[in-house]
Amino acid sequence: MKNIIIILCLLISISINAQSENNSECTNVFLIRHAEKDRTDNTNSNPHLNSLGIKRSLKWKGFFKNINFDVIYSTNYHRTLETIKPFSDTGTELVIYNPSNIDYDKFIFNNKGKTILVVGHSNTIPTFTNNILNKNLYNNIEDNNNSNLYVVNICDEIDVQNSLYFVE
Q: Taking the domains of the chain in order of start, what are their residue ranges?
């Protein structure tokens, strides 16, 4: 399984580098759902990560170690902010966004040529991905799944998308 992840990372990296070498102004968007949240209090609408979520956030740090994000978009919840905390202290710009009020055309325009990470929720990340692609490809993420990674590369108005799922 580890070899598959390494191969997938290599393919994504090669794709991004090849697009950059063609003098295209490529926009590379990585989208993830927050890591596992504490579910001990069903009335808490803003829980922190649980111990598995903290471990996953460190795994995301390792996964993204060779990617230099220009900007990270996160919803304003403990679980999303804690998911990116291990690798967002590098001076990368952090933008808090509201999934209900985002203009996706403006998002693409304002981030042209950048490498972006978007962190959200089981219902917002597939919707975000669909909207930046202008296609309806992805459904909501199952509630017990915190492992999806969506990658969208937009170069010269041509988009390439990948959806990856990591099993642990």
A: 2-165
Tell me the CA distances in angstroms from 63 to 59, 71, 92, 118, one per residue in order.
6, 17, 17, 15
CB-side exposure of 91: number of CA atoms within 13 Å?
1
Q: Locate 37 and state its tokens.
A: 């949240």
Q: Phi and psi at residue 120, in whole multiples of 5°?
A: -150, -135
CA distances 61 to 17, 38, 42, 106, Å, are 21, 20, 28, 28
Any idea which architecture 2-165 has in CATH? 3-Layer(aba) Sandwich (3.40)
Nearest to residue 74, comparing CAs of 54, 47, 93? Answer: 93
Instruction: List CB contacts of 123: < 8 A, sequence separation 6 or more.
Output: 140, 141
C-beta separation of 126 from 82 below 8 A: no
**Cα dihedral across residues 19, 20, 25, 26: positive or negative:** positive
Model confidence, pTM:
0.83
pLDDT tens for each residue of 65-115: 999 999 999 999 999 999 999 988 778 999 999 999 999 999 999 999 999
- Give the separation between CA 128 and CA 43, rounded to whole angstroms: 26
